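Convert to structure. Protein one:
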Amino acid sequence: MNSFVSIENLLTAEYSQLGIRYDNEHKTLWAYMAPLGRPCFTKGLLTDIIDLHALIANNEGSVPVDGKLQKLEYAVLASKVPGIFNLGGDLNVFRECIIAGDRETLSYYATLCIENIWLRLDHFRSDITTISLIQGQALGGGMEAALTADVIVAERSATMGLPEILFNLFPGMGALSLLARRVGMRKAEEMVLSGNIYTAEKLFEMGVVDILVEDGAGDQAVHQWISRNRKCRNGYQAVQRAKNVMQPISYQELMDIANIWVDAALKLTDRDLKLMARLVRAQNCHSITTDTNPFSKMAA
């Protein structure tokens, strides 16, 4: 029996770049990114995610379903863009702000990015277990968003990486802090400074990815992990809380690093901006319109 509640009956709020479904049997909320334009963290997508996360946190870990609050145990972040989880920050916005010397807009975007990940990293001020399902590319901020989860599930063809160093910048929205939790600071720094793109298999060997599955098996793997975990969820949650005590990441830490990122971004040269423009064109190749957005009819 299908335990999913349709999106039309789920939330009173409307999300134009985020699809949502609720699994009543497993008390799980699935959120699927589907940004319009480039498949990156557009302002619209960031706003949708922040609104959803605030809704969950403000309702003490619950969401309204058919007019009643339903307590969540798990929250999954995934994507409906074929072959892409998320390509990261909106490089075109970055480039325009840097050229114009617009610190205010760049700082505002950086703040949105931190708001985007913070409540998820903080388990929505509740005891919700968070899961990232990676099917395709997760680059830059896309990888950072994936790293906020307790559990990362990746299909074998997925790739992840932090290419910002290629245009003389660094990933300033949590990459160092989040990677250091999983692989240690030395390896985290190496990954950030290399700009390398890693296969899901390599990241599984490194301990960044928790569950590696064959292509097309990601959704099923998440369901199976949740079914197993529910039997020992109390103990698992206690371990997660202990890890957070041992390796805390604060909102202030994330914001301080984001401010360092803004300062560094505004120092980029014309040569750096030309390299960034190449990546903007690469993002544009994957642009999504209302005709191809899988949630456009829902949002209409």
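Protein two, convert as well:
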Amino acid sequence: MQRVFITGLGAVSSIVSGRDKFWQALLAGQSGLRPLARVDSTDLACTIGGEVGDLDLDLLQQQLGERVDVRRVDWATRFALAAAREALLDAGLLTNEPNERGGVILGAGLSGMDTLQEQTERLLEKGPRRVSVFTIPALMPNASPANVALAFQLLGPCYTVSTACASSGNAMIDALETIRRGELDFVVTGGTESSLTRLGISSFCNMKAMNVHANDDPSRSMRPFDKDRQGFVMSEGAGILVFESEAHLQRRRAKAYAEVLGFGSTSDGHHLVQPDPQGRGATRAIRQAFERAGVSPADVADRIYVNAHGTSTPFNDAMETLALKNVFGASARQLRISSTKSMTGHVIGASCGLEMIACALALRDGVLPPTINYATPDPECDLDYVPNVAREATVDYALNNSFGFGGHNVSLLIRRGV
């Protein structure tokens, strides 16, 4: 069975785009949440979010050439194209040559919602003849990986995985297993999301999942694990990684950020949108990741960084804390945990991709990003959440948790690259 490594990283986020700038912003505790500019929020309960504001579409078109037209695709695809290009360039795999041994497996939770909103409004206001001929190619769930494969001539398997907020985690599991089976040399994976629309925001607000009480203070709206947390704030972006086989990596004599060791994927079977308060599905997913990796949780508790799902909702943060205690036992007190959603906002299907980038860079640099806005301890959330300030800490492992509506639980375990 092939060993699999992370060899390229690409980030588009509401804080800032570009892998290195994104990482430095996380370490500085910068928030990407602000009043909405692209969305008419006049009558919305939540008027803030994490919009990407620095993507130069003209430059992106120049970089991509003529195979794709960035003006005729959804924002989610634009984010994926920009981040995938950066990841392939970082890995040293950006070429114009067709490659049958390279694939694209991406996650998306609510793909194409910008296009859906725009074209539905056009249909209602101007009639059916004014609906764009590019509507279906733009909003279809597979649009992002299809355009990435087209732009970079990756001819292997190409598809979308959709498991709500766990989407990019499940996509990375598929990428890992495909390479381990020897089917591909590398896979462009992770996730992309652009669901900051009036429809998306209204739906989450009416479900009582969004924080509607922080419109005047957006940078402090996400408060994971804090007693006064009041829900998440939606964001957009893409976190794209290159997973590569050891054999291919060695032939190229290239670098690796981390090795992907194990994964867990479970279902709660409890409730469609609320996590099991006992964290049984999340606990099993975390345990599976360690079991598949052949690593004892207690043995590495003092050498591991946990990037939590950490959505700043009362249900999730308490459940995730309990799940970590279930797996690590008394050694859970040694864990260093943070939620980078406190800065990025909740990027739905792209969350796990961006957070895996944070995990890989934490292993490389020996610095852990903080959980910002942590002020009031919660008795139900009583572990070390690296509050407010980044921390130097040499760690050998990183655990990335993602839990999605539908009861989907994903945990991924990686080890510092060798």
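The chain has 14 helices and 14 strands. The chain has a mean pLDDT of 96.
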